[in-house]
Design goal:
This protein is α/β, with parallel strands linked by helices and 408 residues long. It has 19 helices and seven strands. The chain has a seven-stranded parallel β-sheet with strand order 3-2-4-1-5-6-7, with helices on both faces. α5 crosses α6, α5 runs parallel beside α7 and α7 crosses α11. The two termini are 19 Å apart. It binds guanosine-5'-triphosphate (GTP). Homodimer. Interacts with MMUT (the apoenzyme form); the interaction is GTP dependent.
């Protein structure tokens, strides 16, 4: 097998194929001869072209499938059956498979994911087309009280009969190999709860890699029957923007402290927030918490609106006393219901899929370019001449791209 992921298959197929869950009527009519044996594996909207080339998701996956050894088939069947049966151990093992850097296992992960996606679509159809899970992103600076809050919210939700999964995106694990979030014991009670599943961030890889894994883990959690998926990140680097782009509701947690501690909170991320939660609103901290709540309420009025339907709210909670947590969940449900009713939530999910697709293309295409022999041969010389000021970066880029294209 060639380079990582689905790329080898896509190269063999000479084009990209992608899954289209919601074909327009026109596109569907155009593709009428294109229906596959499994209705849930439609491909469009460039389906005419793809059809001519006999390129479908099914072809791609059966290509993997035909190469599966008996052992691999047994592994995938065991994981799939365990996962859709709601077994935590199978979910954990499936996530390990999508986290792997091993090229062959990456392909197996894609086969598994495609099966789980088809299963999830089936569940969504049974659910009247509505999403089977509510995806909530939670971000905030270190020490904001995220894990304490998730513990309390998670316990309350499992008490109400929900199944809750918690996934972490930890940017520190990408750069230092250490972890801001993972080194201490977090959410001890929730981790013992049989209706909860907690997964720390992968301990290696780029943010792009961790994001991909988290996106794929969300699919697996939903397939395993978790109806609330919480994605947590610490407000460092770009990870909070990545999380905001993978959830239905994005929550920013702010501690009741002023000055320097809040300096790190980026304006851009406040714009992304659907809800701002001021934490630790208890004891002596109630007064500063109210002050922060008022400040953020005014600040949010000045910011660009993210949604036509929803006005971001600022609420106060205490994980220590539990005050405000049930009310906050009610606000979260109001958000979900109003966004679903007007269709914005579905649009947001579709847009997120596109953002995800393009970030994967970008990452893979750039890697392919960098690893290309013609580029590797010419790059040192081009870099040298650009840094010496002999040629412009624009011309050097053109030359390298030309070398890349001509040897394709
Ligand atoms: N008074 C009060 N303290 C709290 C509350 N929630 C959390 N804390 C304290 O705040 C500190 C940080 O809480 P965590 O929940 O670990 O915060 P975090 O955002 O997960 O922190 P990182 O794991 O570093 O990202 C701990 O000492 C908690 O005991 C609260 O509701 N009230």
């Amino acid at each position: 097998m060639g380079p990582a992921g689905l790329l080898p298959v896509l190269h063999r197929l000479k084009t990209l194929s992608f899954k289209c869950t919601s074909l327009s009527a026109a596109a569907a009519a155009k593709c009428s001869s294109f229906q596959m044996s499994r209705a849930d594996l439609w491909v469009g909207p460039t389906c005419t072209l793809l059809h001519r080339r006999n390129i479908t998701v099914e072809t791609a996956l059966s290509h993997h499938g035909s190469e599966l050894t008996d052992r691999e088939k047994r592994l995938l069947d065991r994981l799939y059956n365990g996962l859709v049966g709601g077994q935590r151990a199978s979910l954990a093992e499936s996530i390990t498979l999508v986290e792997t850097q091993h090229p062959r296992k990456k392909e197996l992960a894609q086969v598994l994911l495609q099966r789980v996606l088809a299963f999830r679509q089936q569940l969504e159809r049974q659910n009247g087309g509505k999403p089977v899970a509510f995806r909530v992103g939670l971000s905030g600076p270190p020490g904001a009280g995220k894990s304490s809050f998730i513990e309390v919210l998670g316990k309350m939700l499992t008490g109400k009969g929900h199944r809750v999964s918690v996934l972490a995106v930890d940017p520190s694990s990408c750069t230092t190999g250490g972890s801001l979030m993972g080194d201490k014991t977090r959410m001890t009670e929730l981790s013992r709860d049989m209706s909860a599943f907690i997964r720390p961030s992968p301990t290696s890889g780029t943010l792009g890699g961790v994001t991909r894994t988290t996106n794929e883990s969300i699919v697996l959690c939903e397939g395993a029957g978790y109806d609330v998926v919480l994605v947590e990140t610490v407000g460092v680097g770009q990870s909070e923007f990545a999380v905001a782009d993978m959830v239905d509701l994005f929550v920013l947690l702010i501690p009741p402290a002023g000055g320097d501690e809040l300096q790190g909170i980026k304006r851009g991320i406040i714009e992304k927030a659907d809800l701002v939660v001021v934490t630790k609103s208890d004891g002596d901290l109630v007064v500063p918490a109210r002050k922060i709540q008022a400040e953020y309420t005014s600040a949010l009025k000045l910011l660009r609106k993210k949604s036509k339907t929803w006005k971001p709210k600022v609420v106060r909670v205490s994980s220590q006393t539990g005050e405000g947590v049930p009310e906050l969940w009610e606000v979260m449900l109001q958000f979900r219901d109003s966004m679903l009713a007007c269709g914005e939530l579905q649009v947001r999910r579709r847009e997120q899929q596109k953002v995800w697709l393009w970030s994967l293309i970008q990452e893979n295409a750039l890697q392919h370019f960098r690893e290309h022999p013609a580029v590797q041969a010419g790059l040192p010389e081009m870099e040298r001449r650009v840094t010496q000021g002999d040629i412009s970066p624009g011309l050097a880029a053109d030359l390298l791209l030309r070398a890349f294209r001509s040897s394709q």
